[in-house]
Amino acid sequence: MFGYALRRVASAIPVILIAITLCFFILRLAPGGPFDGERALPPDMLKNLRAYYKLDQPLFIQYLDYIWGVLHGNFGPSMVMKDFSVSQLMAIGLPFTLMLGFSAFIVGTAGGLLAGALAALYQNKWPDYVLVFVVLIGLIIPNFLMANLLQLLFAVYLGWLPAGGFQGSWMQLVLPITILVLPHGGRVARLMRGSMIEVLGTNYVRTARSKGLGTRLILARHAIKPALLPVVSYLGPGLSYLLTGSLVVEQVFALPGIGKYFITAALNRDYGLVLGTTILYMVIILVLNLIVDIVYAWLDPKVRYS
């Protein structure tokens, strides 16, 4: 297992390098730049800014300098937020983004597993229909639209919850976490329902029932663990979807996460911050996929990584 993990880490290095290269050259070759605005800067000032950020050098030299800085943990300065480096901005926004994403992950996974298992136990009955309807609502409606609808209902009309911002109150996190939970919990519930229905129809579960074992004992001993395998395969990408999807949610609810910086950087062509955020999310996705593979081998004894 340890050797497999090392090989996965080694194979991830060229993937990260290729992604950085593509993002770097796409950003540089796209029209516009970080110093373009409604009012054009004086030529001398623009020349000094380009020289300060080394944008006047050949593109390949800029690329080599950036790769050398990344290898030493330096993601460069922010070209829009001039008082901060990219590393400082990520250190400020990342903890909140991780807290938001992991909270939604825990709530959505637990709720999705419970909803999927109940829908499978009551297949083709009213609890199954109700749960499937709620799941479809969460999957069909996009995050930004659902966020605006819930803001309008619970913040404007009913006045039960804040519409946005964050000053340390958990009430301000209810709507953002709910928006992230709905699609994630819906996908987990769909996977759990289908897997549980398949497991409950297997021969060894029928044999357990014929021996007089109760439903709770059958679920605990024979059904839950194999039914979790498809769900575990999704949890790694699912958590990465939550972390990247929180970018939009943070923008809608004006939350102090890394999404605010990323969207601002993308709109203003802040090369360093866009690249730094891209690298950060890419590493998170690769690490999560590795963890999922290891957990999958623990759940299924037939899986062996050699």
List the helices and strands and how they pair.
Blueprint: H1 2-29, H2 43-52, H3 59-71, H4 86-121, H5 126-140, H6 143-157, H7 171-200, H8 203-210, H9 215-252, H10 258-268, H11 271-299
Helix pairs in contact: 1-11, 4-5, 4-7, 4-9, 4-10, 4-11, 5-7, 6-7, 6-9, 7-9, 8-9, 9-10, 9-11, 10-11
Give a structural overview.
The protein has 306 residues and is mainly alpha-helical. It has a domain at 96-250: MetI-like (MetI-like fold). The protein is 76% helix and 0% strand. It has helices spanning 2-29, 43-52, 59-71, 86-121, 126-140, 143-157, 171-200, 203-210, 215-252, 258-268, 271-299. It is flat, with a radius of gyration of 24 Å.
**Class of secondary structure makeup:** mainly alpha
Instruction: Identify the CATH class of one domain.
Output: Mainly Alpha
Distance between the termini: 7 Å
Query: What's the CATH architecture name of one domain?
Result: Orthogonal Bundle
Given the C-alpha coordinates, what overall shape results? flat
Order of helices and strands: HHHHHHHHHHH
- CATH superfamily membership of one domain, which one? MetI-like
CATH topology-level name of one domain: MetI-like fold
Q: What's the overall average pLDDT, rounded?
A: 81
Q: Beta-strand percentage?
A: under 5%
Largest sheet: none
Helix percent reads: over 70%
Total helical segments: 11
What is the strand tally? Answer: 0
C-alpha-based Rg, rounded: 24 Å
Low-confidence stretches: none
